Every structure is written in C-alpha cells, then in structure tokens.
Amino acid sequence: MIKDLVDEAKINSEDLCTYFKISETELNKIYSSPSLNSEDLLQWSIFLKYDFFRIYSQHLILYAPPADTRYTRKGSEHKKKFKNIYTKEIIEFILEQIKSGEKTDIQVVEDYRIPKNTLYKWKKKYNQ
Fold it and tell me: Given CA atoms 76, 78, 79, 83 in this order, what sign does their dihedral have?
C-alpha cells in the first residue's frame, strides 16, 4: 500500500530516501516487506497523510473473536461498554457488499458477527 500511495502521489524515490534518511535499497525492502514496526508505519502515515493504522483497527473490529463470557458472572457490571464501535467506513463497506450481491445479510451476520438488529438499523438509516 505504501508503494501504491507513493506512485499515486508521484513522489520521487530520491526525495523519499532523503526524507527518511535511507538508501534506495532500504526503500525497496520497505516496499516488499510484509510488515513494518509501528514507529516506521507512523512516519509513513504522517508523510503520506494516510492512516495505515486504521486498516489494522478495522480488521480487528471485523474479525476479532467474540469475547469469552465463561468467566463473567451473571448480573455482573462487566458488560461491554462499547456501544458504537463501527466506523462509517466499515458500515459503508458492509452495506456495499450486500448491495453488490457479494454477501447476503445472513453471511454478513455470520462472518462479521454483527447483530441482525444492528444490520437492519444500518440498512434503514442508509436507505438500503
């Protein structure tokens, strides 16, 4: 994604090397690397004005396993306090999958563990 954004912005590799104080070889390693440490990713986010961390946080929201409720007492006050964890981008992404026919309502509920009622409200709110 970094390489794609650099190409899209038509940024010269020499300028990147100067800014990040790295060689052309190191720049190419970054492009081909499957991961970066968080400090480097933050620097790229700032430079390219793109939140690369959002990709990971949205992935966690969509694919995180459900909370293990075996250890909570009934009536406990340890209930989830996260009411609105879905960003507008996630909602639009999910509704677009339904609209395009890529997924059905049932598939969305099962794959992303979104309550049926929540999905219904999104569809009603966003006129789908």
Answer: positive
Distances (CA, A) of 108 to 58, 89, 117: 15, 15, 12
Alpha-carbon span 6 to 29, nearest angstrom: 15
Helices (H), the chain: 2-8, 13-20, 24-32, 38-48, 52-63, 88-100, 105-112, 116-125
Q: Are the C-beta atoms of residues 105 and 119 closer than 8 Å to each other?
A: yes
Enter the pTM of the model: 0.52
- Residue 8 CA to chain centroid, in angstroms? 20
pLDDT tens track for 64-117: 666 555 555 555 454 454 456 778 888 888 899 999 999 999 998 888 888 898
